Amino acid sequence: MTPETALIIVAMGFLVVLLLGYPLTFTLGGLAVIFGFTMWDNPGVLNLFNRTILNVGSNVSYVSCILFIFMGCILERSGAADDMFESMYIIFGRIRGGLAIGTVVICTLLAAATGIIGASITMMTMLALPTMMRYKYNRKLSFGTIMAAGCLGTIIPPSIILVIYGAQAQISIGKLFAGGIGAGLLLSGLYLAYIVIRTLINPEMGPPISKEEADKYSTRDKLILILKTIVPTLGLIVLVLGSILKGVATPTEAAALGCVGSMFIALAYKRLNWKMIQEACFETMKTNAMIMWIILAASMFTAVFLGLGGAQVITNFVTSLDVSRWVIFAVVAIILLIMGMFIDSYGVLLIGIPVFTPIVYALGFDPIWFAIMFAVLIQASYLSPPFAYAAFYLKGVAKENINISEVYSATFPFLGLQILAIILLCIFPQIITYLPSIMY
Amino acid sequence: KVQTAPASGSASSGMQATPEFNWKMQVIHTTGQSDFEQNKQTAEDIYKMSNGRLKIEVVPNGTFASSSEGFQAAGDGVFEMHSSWPIYAKGIEYALLPLSTGSMSMDAMDKWTWMYEHGGWDLSQKAFDKLNLQLVGLEIWGSEVMMSKKPYKGLSDMAGNKMRTSDPRMIAKYGVAGISMPLEEVFTAMSQGAVESAEFGHLKYDESLGLVDISKYGIYPDFWNVHFATTVVVNKDAWNSLPPDLQLIVEMAFKARELQHWTKSQYESAQTMKKLQESGDMEFIRMNKEDFIKAREEMVKIEQEDAAKYGGLTAEVYDSINEFQEMWYPYKDMSSWWGAGLTPEQQLGYPLEK
Amino acid sequence: MVQKLAKVLKGIDKISEFTAKSFSYIVLLIVALQAFEVVRRYILKSPTDWSWELATMLTGVSWMVGVAWVLKEGKHVRTDIIYGRLSKKWQAIIDIVFFGFIFTPFVGVLLWKTTQNAFFAWSIDERTFSMWGPPIAPSKTIFALSFFLLALQGIAKLLRDIIYVVKGEEV
Ligand code: NA
Ligand code: NA
């Protein structure tokens, strides 16, 4: 059997079991064991999985994930989150899609405080989604906004993906961080524009407050609302961010400070008690275990994919191409997008860096520009079905009953926006390269 | 069962169409980094030398196991070969720490001499026996640099400051807070000032990570991880299944490049230093000698504590090193090169143009 | 018979839930560890060499143990494109079939391998590679325990599915 055939069998097996609806975690883990044992010519393969467990189970990147989930649980139970989005609804007043706009803005701020995606998506699903549902926001627009904006954390610094990329491809991490800012803000801007345009055309998608209701609140009322309900939670996020920028805390430590801060907010709301903390602990456990077990099983699956020669197949294909450099870049982008549909994002990174960087460098693309394009494509992989972390997190955390197909289709417009961003970044590479060129 | 891509070549070149042995080798670093490229080149050479009988696919760190479990994974047969820092397996055999590294310890030539002539190699193999691994190659790394936001002239200047380092025991005696943070956190922490200095590798390596962008000073000489050794090991079952001619090819091929690993990293670091000095991006400082004399004395105490605490092979290694050094340093002192201790210009014999 | 079995199944549920809830308090410990580390480094200028590693280890064990409880609560994400349109009986049949094909090899192999790994760690008093070098056997034991709990809860789910398909009863 050639590696090509092997990989086709692996991909088909995954699709069939996944579509029949067996839980993703067991599907990935089970197929990893079965394909590893039957197809990989190596008696030691079953020992591989112990290594994967320790790899994921002692990975420092995931400390901030549990902390942000806990912070979200506390904010949710304190009532502060609900109040904040409730007043945002009032303050945005007659502006359509106001809650979605607020969500994108908060996600952009959160993105600057966390380096992974699990954190923002679970937090915003807990905090923003209930209010959006209550005010009859279009479901797909709400889901898509949270998922897409929640992925900004991987591109706006600090970003774990960019650190790994920098370390592996030997590019200045500082310059990558600087380059990520432009691309991240472009994506954030595109999401905002999309929300504004969609709700302008169709107000039903993000209904604003009614005229009579809006007239009840004076500017003074609104100011008080801002002070009482928005300043605390938003302030907390800004403080978390500030502690990193001021050199007080590392990103993970900042998340812990955020947890402490959220307990103070709960105290101010007179909701802090042992029972509430207990419930937050239980909820954190349930959510984090669900997420982390997907990551664990996906890592096993990816290791087997690589062991069966996955990287080799892709290298052979790309190096056999004899076309213009932009066509090759397009092919690389499409391969990354397709890989992102089936395997874990870390796997995409692991295959992509050694395979593609030498090729694109040889074609004369700017290394920093390509690194950021690569990161944009990786964050698209969080969103692209069927293997879409963003969708799993949202569905796993949401209190509402949601079909995964509904979540999947919610990703499409935002995936379209990401492709638009990729095209814009090709036409205007300065969006990425300007900041790194002046910063150091 | 899956075969890796069929071998190229024709019958006339004597190349086999499909290899008899398909191995995988996980290397601690990745594409573009010196040891990764070197091991990859060696694997290609072995493929040719063996007429296509042995094909080793070199994969980057983390493909199958994280750095901390790579040696165990190789011993378990997850992949056949591994190149990494033995310290990652010190939780299984502590002697791998003194075997591969140490603060304020031997320079590269000393270490090579000890390894090859005074029993270091056999002791290393003894440690790897516990992991079901065969030692076939050894790479000794060149001098590392401390990337710093502050211009320390000596260890005592560092008191009260924070440094990211893997073994903080010695600097702790100077009141330095050693932080063993991972790279993911350190980069942001250092650029924002939460940590004043950090060590990762030699200058060329640190430059490629962009650490030069966030540090003004490069400080020498290295007192941590001095002349670290990375080892190339093979799973013993895989090794024993190899016919003697292929075993010899593997051994010779990896040994042949050992020295070049050192020369390359140091040569490139020298080029990097010249570049950074000329551009004014960084200043380089050599710490004062008095601090180092005291630091070595402090380190001896730590080594003695280690030997007493862990005993066994650890004590055996320290004994062997000490025995070697007692004989070696008087000789080295007497026979050292004329230029040792002179200025660059004295060594050149003519003035350096600035 | 079914009544007796129902008691056993409820017992398994309780074990999964109890373990997960007990371990869930770990997050408080992680918050405290990380927050104190900031104070120690930024204000007291004396950071530890163990806080980071301990927080990372604790994070790992905390989510590993939760898997059985997540299964009990039916919270493992599935794609419901087809599954969601099936009757409850057919859903149970799919779960029964895949329990054999997918769940058993996954959990069986991993339970075996993680247990072996934990025993090895205890037998040599394995340590991590850091300078602090804490024992790693406790973590590895909890990894194995997680798969044990998952196996138990998986069997409970299987029995429930079988009872539902055969008798139409939910226990
Ligand atoms: Na970020
Ligand atoms: Na995807």
Automatic annotation (TrEMBL), chain A:
Keywords: Cell inner membrane, Cell membrane, Membrane, Transmembrane, Transmembrane helix. GO terms for cellular component: plasma membrane. The chain crosses the membrane at residues 6-39, 60-79, 99-129, 141-165, 177-201, 222-245, 251-269, 290-314, 326-356, 368-392, 412-435. It comes from the Bacteria. The keyword Transmembrane applies. Residues 12-431 form the TRAP C4-dicarboxylate transport system permease DctM subunit domain. The keyword Hydrolase does not apply. Its main location: membrane. One of its GO terms (molecular function) is transmembrane transporter activity. It is a multi-pass membrane protein. This is TRAP transporter, DctM subunit. It comes from Desulfitobacterium dichloroeliminans (strain LMG P-21439 / DCA1).
Automatic annotation (TrEMBL), chain C:
It holds the Pfam family DctQ. GO terms for cellular component: plasma membrane. It is found in: Cell inner membrane. Its main location: membrane. Residues 31-162 form the Tripartite ATP-independent periplasmic transporters DctQ component domain. It comes from the Bacteria. Keywords: Cell inner membrane, Cell membrane, Membrane, Transmembrane, Transmembrane helix, Transport. It is a multi-pass membrane protein. The chain crosses the membrane at residues 23-44, 50-71, 92-112, 132-152. Belongs to the TRAP transporter small permease family. This is TRAP-type mannitol/chloroaromatic compound transport system, small permease component. It comes from Desulfitobacterium dichloroeliminans (strain LMG P-21439 / DCA1).
